[in-house]
Write a structure and sequence with these properties.
Blueprint lengths: L1 H9 L10 H15 L13 H39 L5 E4 L3 E4 H16 L2 H15 L8 H11 L2 H30 L5 H19 L1 H21 L5
Antiparallel strand pairs: 1-2
InterPro entries: FliR, T3SS_IM_R
Subcellular location: Cell membrane; Bacterial flagellum basal body
Keywords: Bacterial flagellum, Cell membrane, Cell projection, Cilium, Flagellum, Membrane, Transmembrane, Transmembrane helix
Length: 238
């Protein structure tokens, strides 16, 4: 149960503050009750030195899987921050239960990602991922801790790559919008750029965001698929 509980505490969506602690406890108990007959549970004393090591190891497995999936949310927060800065919304912040104070666009992307996650059955994939983890790393089995840490650290670079993949098309277009505004300002110095430029940038950015929602959805879905694949593959051969 410790592996499942650790994963639920740190996993995307479930770890949000809006999901109360009693709900997480009930969910962990239900998942343990469902998975218990499907796996082999060794007979060990949890208070013995060997049992304590196994308990810590189980907690590490659950947290490692959850952190691997949390990379997607990190990429979305980074993409939202970059888009907000390019659109002139960098000062527009909102309180997010999972990440603290984040830009409005980051919160929008996280909500959008949640809908995509549920639409392709991410909750079912999460259950099967927990079940597969007991096949790759049975309870009490040893594994190469250094190899797992290196794989997880290598995957965290996807925070930057994923954020760039999501934000880059709109950012490049907004760069062209800024260049056009600069040309207009040089051509008509009497024009108040603060009265015209900022609203134009925000409207152009929101229009581009709406136009690119389909492409953004495909990239977010790709990130989720890669995250689930990586969360499974980090335990292969360790």
């Amino acid at each position: 149960m410790l592996r499942i509980s650790a994963m639920i505490i740190a996993a995307p969506l479930i770890s949000l503050d809006v999901v109360s602690l009693p709900i997480r406890i009930v969910l962990a108990i239900v998942l343990t009750w469902v998975i218990y007959p499907l796996i082999e549970v060794p007979n060990l004393n949890p208070l013995s030195p060997e049992g304590m090591v196994i308990l810590v190891r189980e907690m590490f497995v659950g947290i490692a899987i959850a952190v691997t999936l949390q990379v997607v949310n990190g990429a979305l927060i980074l993409a939202g921050q970059a888009l907000s800065m390019s659109m002139g919304l960098g000062m527009a912040q909102i309180m997010d239960p999972s990440a603290g104070t984040v830009p409005v666009l980051s919160s929008f992307l996280i909500i959008f990602s949640t809908l995509i996650f549920m639409s392709f059955g991410g909750h079912s994939l999460l259950f099967f991922l927990i079940l597969q983890s007991f096949e790759f790393v049975p309870i009490g089995a040893a594994f190469d801790l250094d190899a797992v840490i290196l794989k997880v650290m290598a995957w965290t670079s996807m925070v930057f790559l994923g954020g760039i993949l999501i934000a880059m098309p709109i950012m490049l277009t907004m760069l062209l919008v800024n260049l056009c505004l600069g040309i207009v300002t040089r051509s008509a110095p009497a024009l108040n750029i603060f009265a015209v430029g900022f609203p134009a940038m925000i409207l152009a950015g929101l229009a581009l965001l709406i136009i690119n929602l389909t492409n953004i959805a495909h990239r977010i879905e790709w990130l989720w698929v890669e995250a689930f694949t990586t969360a499974r593959d980090i335990w292969v051969g360790v």
